[in-house]
Inverse folding.
């Protein structure tokens, strides 16, 4: 009551002063309103500056003394800056009846504007708190790879929706529930407008619940050209930074409606698969003679294997009285089989091959490009450049080793091969042309 009386006295003081100067009542009324409005604006400005400096200074000092990062994120997201706006807003609301006491018809519309600003300010404060909470959760082990953005975006949309309803209610003078009831009738349109948001929200829940994708996972989604690390998962999109540093944006709900590959399992086990073949020329595969076996025994990695294997083969052939005047009779070793044994021994002693995961050297079905000998193993370093280096070293060695087993790697004829063949004396070039045409067809 005392404050109201003081305000009334201030209002009358300036008004009576203008009247005493001989100014007409109408002009005195407007001049009184403008003077009071100027005073209030100056007071609001000074209060806003002082409140902001005090609030920010105090929060910064408090943040420096605490170990938690949450208060740092509150400052970073301007939470205290928004809170400092509350005091000037209170001054504006309280001064409206004083400044516009001679214009009562203006008070209600201006009060509506201040109420609308109050709603907007409240939303800004809550959103700053939510952003701070999101940033803080991302620093914790439990939530750092979870799609926190999606859930906070849903809360933000809900805040905007509630704020919109309240502002609409202020502008129209209708009750909030009346507006909500009217919205129910337009639910089909709302579902259509917010289809992507709803699908994204549902997808975010499923992705998080089923632990399908985390921030930092390497995923491959060929349909959308995505092959890289997940950098962000929000309500509507998933951002993937590809290995060429481009960014691919995928709708969140496509992660549950389409197929994609997540390489997290590979990264977690610490082994990256090597699956590549060497194609041997089939005509170079042969049985081993005693001279061949003696020569191959000089290769250290398979010396003991050859001795043990040959002992079993000789025992079998002797017991079954096998005629070894022909190599095809009885049991024999082949250079392709010995090469596979050598490749297996080489992988076993290679320090960059993961020994706790699957490792084999297998023969695949012969094709028109030769006999594939497939290396199936895992490098013990999942980093791309190191993995490629490990795989290259393995195949450099094995490709160079092939000739020591009297084997050849299948290759299509090169241009110089064809020139040498054409220039060879005695070559029937017409027959050669005919053979090449047959191969084309």
């Amino acid at each position: 009551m005392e404050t109201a009386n003081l305000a009334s006295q201030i209002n009358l003081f300036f008004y009576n002063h203008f009247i005493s100067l001989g100014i007409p009542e109408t002009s005195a009324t407007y001049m009184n309103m403008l003077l009071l409005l100027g005073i209030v604006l100056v007071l609001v400005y000074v209060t806003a500056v002082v409140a902001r400096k005090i609030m920010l200074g105090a929060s910064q000092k408090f943040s420096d003394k605490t170990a938690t990062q949450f208060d740092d994120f509150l400052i970073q997201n301007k939470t205290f800056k928004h809170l400092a706006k509350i005091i000037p807003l209170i001054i504006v609301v309280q001064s409206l009846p004083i400044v516009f006491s001679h214009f009562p018809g203006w008070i209600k519309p201006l009060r509506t504007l201040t109420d609308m600003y109050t709603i907007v300010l409240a939303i800004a404060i809550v959103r700053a708190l939510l952003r701070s909470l999101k940033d803080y959760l991302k620093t914790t082990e439990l939530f750092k790879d979870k799609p926190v953005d999606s859930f906070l975006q849903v809360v933000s949309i809900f805040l905007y929706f509630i704020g919109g309803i309240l502002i609409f209610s202020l502008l129209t003078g209708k009750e909030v529930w009346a507006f909500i009831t009217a919205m129910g009738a337009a639910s089909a349109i709302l579902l259509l407008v917010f289809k992507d948001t709803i699908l994204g929200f549902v997808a975010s829940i499923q992705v998080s619940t089923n632990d399908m994708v985390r921030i930092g996972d390497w995923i491959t989604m060929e349909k959308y050209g995505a092959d890289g690390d997940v950098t962000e998962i929000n309500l509507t999109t998933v951002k993937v930074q590809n290995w060429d540093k481009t960014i691919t944006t995928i709708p969140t709900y496509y992660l549950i409606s389409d197929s994609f590959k997540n390489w997290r399992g590979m990264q977690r086990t610490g082994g990256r698969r090597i699956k590549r073949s060497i194609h041997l020329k089939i005509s170079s595969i042969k049985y081993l003679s005693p001279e061949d076996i003696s020569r191959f025994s000089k290769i250290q990695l398979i010396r003991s294997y050859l001795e043990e294997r040959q002992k079993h083969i000789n025992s079998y052939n002797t017991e079954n009285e096998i005629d070894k005047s022909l190599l095809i009779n009885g049991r024999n070793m082949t250079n392709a089989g010995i090469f596979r044994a050598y490749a297996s021994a080489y992988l076993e002693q290679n320090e960059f091959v993961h020994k706790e995961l699957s490792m084999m050297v297998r023969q695949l079905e012969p094709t028109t490009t030769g006999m594939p000998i497939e290396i199936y193993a895992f490098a013990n370093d999942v980093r791309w450049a190191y993995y490629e280096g490990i795989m290259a070293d393995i195949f450099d060695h094995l490709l160079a080793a092939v000739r020591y087993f009297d084997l050849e790697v299948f290759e299509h004829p090169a241009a110089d091969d064809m020139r040498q063949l054409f220039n060879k004396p005695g070559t029937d070039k017409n027959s050669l042309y005919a053979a090449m045409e047959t191969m084309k067809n």
About this structure: The two ends are 106 Å apart (CA to CA). The CA atoms of residues 66 and 72 lie 9 Å apart.
